[in-house]
Write a structure and sequence with these properties.
78 residues, single chain
Amino acid sequence: MGVRISPLLPVFSENMNKIKTYFQEAYTELVHKVTWPTWTDLKSSSIVVMVASLLIAVVIFVMDFCFQHIFEAIYGLF
C-alpha cells in the first residue's frame, strides 16, 4: 500500500499549461494589440479628470453649505 499521486500530475501539468498560455496571450495582447495613449493625450486626459473632480467637489461643498444653513434656520424656529 502506498500513496498514489500519479493521477494528479497530468491535471497539475494541464493547469500549469493553461496558466502559462494565459500569461503568454495577455502579454502578446498588451504589447502588440493595445493602442496606448501618447504622453500628450495622457496629460490632457489627466487635466480633464482633475478639473472635473474639482468642479464636482465645489458643487458638493456649495450644496452642503446651503443645506447646513437651511436646516439651521429651520431648526432655529423650534
